[in-house]
Amino acid sequence: MKLIEFFKSVKTLMKVAKKPSRTEFMIALKITFLGIIVLGAIAFIVRFVALALQTI
Hints:
By secondary structure, the protein is mostly helical.
């Protein structure tokens, strides 16, 4: 019974959903790239500190 309810909710979501405008898409893209850069910087700093502590 839950599977039927799931498909009904998916059908409702598809009726309500719309394609994002170009500006919305560009904002989402910028936020995604910023998140990737921040996570990469944090990983780099952690790796750098770990290597520095190993040599001591």
